[in-house]
Amino acid sequence: MLSRFFNSMIYLGAGTIGFAVGLSFCTFVVDGGQRAIMFDAISGKGVSQKVLGEGIHFRIPKLYEPIIFNIRMTPHIIDTKTPARDLQLISISVRILERPDPRYLTKIYLDLRQNYADRVLPNITHETIKAVVARYNPDQLITQREKVSLEIKQGLVSKAKEYNIILDDVAIVHIEFSKEYRDAIEAKQVSQQMAERAKFIVMKSEEEKKLSVIRAEAESESARIYNDSIQNFGRAHLELKRLEAAKEIIENLSKSKNVTYLPSSSQDANKMNMLYKL
User: Fold this and answer.
1) CATH number of the domain at 74-177, out of 3.30.479.30, 3.40.50.2300, 1.20.1640.10, 3.30.360.10?
2) pLDDT tens for each residue of 170-202
3) C-alpha–C-alpha distance, residues 209 and 207, integer Å
């Protein structure tokens, strides 16, 4: 009895393992963000039109196999060199977020296979960028960058739609001009700075001339007022200035340690002699 029980368990285990292995070979899983179409060799229809969503699905190895597509947004950076309207060579890098249209996965696979993006996006991107950039000068590509980016996006979205590809976003990430153009811009900026400097020097010279004229007029007016005051009020003003100067000299000398004041004779008590100590 015990031997029969163990044999039954062995058979059951082997059957379970065989079923699990068979099930794994006959099923597949479509994860989130994916879709699948089936290659049907049994009926001879080739690739089926039906699109399978997320979940577990049936298959027959070699005869009924899944073709899985990623329908999440996928980023691509595409670089292009193209001449602007004035024939200056411009390097532009564009970032594209794309995904296949789930309704047309069968057509995408039949026309382009699963690497559809690498087959289509570089060609239509180069073509669209060349057509848009050729309408602008290099400086306009900077000042009107949003407009240029929008035109490139509209052109790419329209062309990608022909291949059943959805573009969720298109943006210019980098613009670089040729070395000759950068050198010309730098030389232009230097010349503008030199012109502004020369303009500043001329304005400064004119202001200094005006200031000299105003200063001369002020000195002339001051001399006239001074002469009028002497004629009208005598030399009292000069005496006041002399006394103020003498007071200032005495204050400065009083602070010196090498000067000593000695009184003069009584006949002139208002005068003092100075003795310098060496």
Assistant:
1) 3.30.479.30
2) 999 998 887 777 676 677 777 788 888 888 888
3) 5
